[in-house]
Structure formats: C-alpha cells, structure tokens
Amino acid sequence: MNHNTPLSPRPPHHLSTGAGRRVLTHTQLRAHGVPAAAAGEQCRPGGPWQQLLPGVVLLHPGPPTSEERLHAVLLYAARERTVSVPVQPGGDEPPASPYGEAMITGLAALTLHGFASAPPLPSLEAFDVLVPRLRRLRSTGCARIVRTPALPVPEQVTGLPVAPVPRALADAVAGIEDAALVRRLLTEAVRGGHCDPAAVVRELTGAKLLNRPHVVDAVDSLLAEGRALAEARLYRMVRDHGLPDPCWNVDLRLPGGPLLGGLDAYWPEQAVAVELDTRAPRPGRRPQDDVQWTEYARRRELLERLGITVVHVTPRGLRDAAEQQAAVVRTALTAAADRDPAAYVVVLPR
Prior knowledge:
Blueprint: H1 12-15, E1 23-25, H2 26-31, H3 36-42, E2 50-53, E3 56-58, H4 66-78, E4 103-105, H5 106-112, E5 127-132, E6 143-148, E7 155-157, E8 160-162, H6 165-173, H7 179-191, H8 197-206, H9 213-240, E9 247-253, E10 259-267, E11 272-276, H10 288-305, E12 309-313, H11 315-320, H12 322-335, E13 346-349
Parallel strand pairs: 5-6, 11-12
Antiparallel strand pairs: 1-3, 2-3, 4-5, 7-8, 9-10, 9-13, 10-11
C-alpha cells in the first residue's frame, strides 16, 4: 500500500443533511475523513464548498442561509479554543452543546426570541456571539465577538444557544444609536412578556449604558410601560380570584393632617393596602433614586404603625404567581378581624 496516497474527501452529499451539517469546522471535517488539504481543494473558487469563516466551511457553493450563518458564527466562536477554562468540580466532561459556551446575543438573539421590532436575520450583516472574556477571538466576516466576564445561562431557540432577553437587549442597545429603535425594543420586551423592567435595567446598568441620554429616555418609558401592565394584572387578579372590590388608586390622609401617600388598592373596612413594587435599581444614574427609595420605606413604616397592613406585590409575582399573590391578600383581609382597629384615615381619589 502506498501510504503517501492522499485521502479523497467523501462526496459532499454525505455531509450535507440539515443546516447544521452543511456548516462544519476543519476539525469536524477531519473526523469525517476530510483532511485540511482536501477541504482547501473543495473550497477553491468554483469548487463545491466555500470557507465561510476562518476554520469554518460551508458545504455548498451558493449564498449561506441565515440559519447556516448562525451555525457558522457559533462554530467559529467555539472552535479550537486557545484559552483553557477552569473545569468545575465533577465537570470533566466537555459541554453538551456543540458550540461550547458560545451563544447568540444582540439583535439576532432578539429576532430569534420573536421580537417584531428586531430586524429580520437576512438583513443583519453580522451576528453577535457572546463568549467568555478570556477567549482570544477576533470579529470577522459575519461573526461579531462580544466578551463578558460572566456568561448567562443560554436559552435554546430553534436548537441554538441564545442569550436571555435582558442580556441580548443590553448587547443590542450597546450598538444602536437610533433612539426610536431602542425605545421599541425595550417596550416590546415588557409588553410582550419577555422579561421584567428591573431585569433589563440591571443588564443596562452592568453594561454601563445608562449614561446615554437616549437609553435613559427609553428606560423611563420602559418603567412606565411596566407599571401600566402590572396595574392591569392587579385588576385581573382581584377579579379572577374573587377578592372584594377595593378602592383603586387612592391617597390616604390623616384627618386634618398631611398626605400619607398613594396606594394602588385599599380595603378601608379591613385596613389592608396593596402597593405595586415596580422600582428598578439604577445605581449611579440619578441621586434622587436613593431619596425615592428612602421615602418608599418611610411611608410603608408609617402606614404599618397606624395599623394598616401593606401587601407588596411585584410585576413578576402578578405575572407568574397571581394565585399565590391573591392568597396573601385574602389572608390579610381575613386576619383583619383579629387585629386592633387601625387609625382612622381619610381616603381620597388619586
């Protein structure tokens, strides 16, 4: 046998089944019996294959589909790692994902999550791919590398690892100067039930994006949108779970005294109040935020000293656990008969 005889690549159709299989790295091709030299021959101009990214081969000559480009950027980010990542105890096995720790983020991720305001995949020249901070990778072609010191847990969308919506939003907003688009994306995140405003604000804060005026304006709209949705869910919780009708959106005042503050719902006979906690932390953004939080705590303490039970509910609680939230309110209403009478307060429409 002549051991110098080069190996011939298997016919392309052997490897070209499914979008993921139509995009392979050189390492994967070698595992299929196609050495690097043979792959290079196939990728020559006019050949049946093409090199889509460094070390990543597209197994047909025509333009890549969006799905093939997504697979390609993930394979590029995961291939032949040059930096070793510490192995967790009991974690000797390689990651289950064929893409390692890489995941799609930014606008492409929002499109995959179903955002109507995100551009369609074919219109994006490059896809953002999130990798650990120490990876030695460069952005090239349709792969735009985004590094992070702490990777989120990816979500599987159409079989691909995709960054959760809050992280994808932050990565998208980082590259967008169009104030209207930023506002639409953030609003859709809340209106579409993808995530809570607080989660978005945390990611934007971590990405140091709240020093951009157009992002701050969009966040203000986001928080207003979140409160409106939470109020609608609060109305629905009271109705659907058979709670007695409260006085909605009222201010309380001591007779002849100052205002005690506003409440989202109040049952005067039982002296039970519900307050929506829609605050979102924005450290370093506005000094008055801390003042508002202090006032929030002071008002709650004052009402409780007057014998008024204050039940705090969050937008996430109303969205994901309305029955449990209703049970907490019902318990407070039932327990009113066993408490000392509350101080008399005047209830005013807000």
